[in-house]
Amino acid sequence: MLENIEAILSDQCGLTKDRPIIVGVSGGPDSLCLMSVTRQAGYSLIVAHFNHHLRPEADMDANSVEQTAARLMIPSMVDGADVRAYAAKESLSIEEAARHLRYSFLFRLAREHGAQAVAVGHTADDQVETVLMHFLRGSGLSGLRGMSYRSILKTFDDSIPIVRPLLDVSREETVVYCAAHGLRPQYDPSNDSLNFLRNRLRHLLIPNLETYNPKFREAVLRMTHSLKADHTFIKEALDLAWRECVTDMNPDMITLDLSRLTNQPLGLRRNLLRHAILTLRPGQETNYAAIERATSFLNDPNHPPRVDLIGGLRLFREGEHIYVCTPDADLPINRWPLLPEECEPIPLAIPGVIDLSGGWKFNCERWRLPALAREQAEKNEDQFQVWLDAESLPSSLELRTRRAGDRFEPLGMDGHSQKLSDFLINEKMPQRVRDRWPLLCSGDVVVWIPGYRPAHPFRLKTTSRHVMYLSITQPLEKPAEESPQQE
């Protein structure tokens, strides 16, 4: 075992011998075996034991770990907490509460002592049980590939890895190793309790499955190795798609380009959404229902512009952007050409430029070549620029926000008018920007709604001899953020 472990410690776990490792030791055979083989391989260790105070024997276990570490001349640290009280306070299961407190302790020690990693004694049997748990929850490829030798748990630390050198070692092998090397594991009777899901898998489900395939455990382990290679391939594709689709990112929100996202294959689309959730909520369980709810939302343009995801996250659609965000996120406002809040009407000079919020600019100029204007207008696909018949325009123009009672005669409706509010609703203008959207007006007459349509009476005609060119330009976009590195 030691020969294989040395290669795994170096090659798979990426450990070096110049910095200490925090080794989580419960006192059971798996963690004692890990402590011993890592020490024999020449690594500098700090033994860490967390007392959950769940059993009368818990204090004895802590003392036993301290004594074993002292006998092997390994420094040790012991801490503990009332897991039951914490679980009740945080509305967690006992298992979840114990894991959170234990890992918080291990990674705190790692930071305090400048450790290169936290090592835990997960074995091949733990791997099989973990994969089955993920399977029963309806996990995708990421869950079915199981645990890795080395990974980052962002819930606990962004840079210090957790390593699992014993993933190819059976639980039985660790028991034999301890007996052969004079290590005396502590027996935890809670491992036999059927109150815990993992124990029910261990004692009931797996033995039952082995009646169908005596080598069931080996089959599951082979599957995890195969899926790890597949996951690596998908991760590379995911990183490329992430860089293509993500336009902005901060701790509370990820912004994606809607058309680029929906053009991705369904499998990549699902993985991009899952990746966004895990980026904002590291460690969050992402079930099939949440991902399908999100993909259905993307495929239905008539769906209300918001859907709840999981873990308090929400999905918003505005124009050509999709936002995955926390409840506290402030959706960006500067990507729209808006007037300042409570802005008075701004007279328009011709030619002239008006500064809008967020670096946007409103531009106005005369064109003396009507034939060229008509040619450009026919090819134009940018709704933030327009060519109008200058002779039909009122003599004075201004930029203002909407008013109660405003009406509009949209181009294409043959002079029929409608309430401006109805037009904005029909065009799906985001509600939160309607009160600050710049309107080109002359008094009560709406001449042009930038980003949408001009009014029918002022359209460019084949007989137009004088042309007014209007446009809104936006500031240069920041480059998209790089994909965050995750397991």
Care to describe what's here?
- The chain is α+β, with helices and mostly antiparallel strands and 487 residues long.
- Helices cover 38% and strands 18% of the residues.
- It folds into three domains: 2-209, Rossmann fold (3-Layer(aba) Sandwich), CATH 3.40.50.620; 234-325, 2-Layer Sandwich (Uridine Diphospho-n-acetylenolpyruvylglucosamine Reductase, domain 3), CATH 3.30.465; 346-473, no CATH class.
- The strands form five sheets. It has a six-stranded mixed β-sheet with strand order 3-2-1-4-6-5, sandwiched between helices. Strands 7-8-11-10-9 form a five-stranded antiparallel β-sheet. A four-stranded antiparallel β-sheet has the order 12-16-19-20, with no helix packed on it.
- Helix 2 (29-40) crosses helix 8.
- The chain is elongated, with a radius of gyration of 32 Å.
Helix content: 25-40%
Radius of gyration: 32 Å
Q: Which word captures the global form?
A: elongated
Strand order of the largest sheet: 3-2-1-4-6-5
- Just give the CATH class of the largest domain: Alpha Beta
Count of distinct structural domains:
3
**Distance between the terminal alpha carbons, to the nearest Å?**
27 Å
What's the short story on this structure?
The protein has 487 residues and is of the alpha+beta class. It is built from 15 helices and 21 strands.
Topology:
Elements: H1 2-12, E1 21-24, H2 29-40, E2 45-51, H3 58-71, E3 76-80, H4 83-90, H5 94-112, E4 117-119, H6 124-136, H7 141-144, E5 150-151, E6 162-163, H8 171-180, H9 197-209, H10 216-245, E7 246-250, E8 253-257, H11 258-262, H12 266-280, H13 288-299, E9 306-308, E10 314-318, E11 321-325, E12 346-347, E13 352-355, E14 361-367, H14 370-379, E15 385-389, E16 398-400, E17 407-408, E18 418-419, H15 420-426, E19 439-442, E20 445-448, E21 467-473
Parallel strand pairs: 1-2, 1-4, 2-3, 4-6
Antiparallel strand pairs: 5-6, 7-8, 8-11, 9-10, 10-11, 12-16, 13-14, 14-21, 15-21, 16-19, 17-18, 19-20
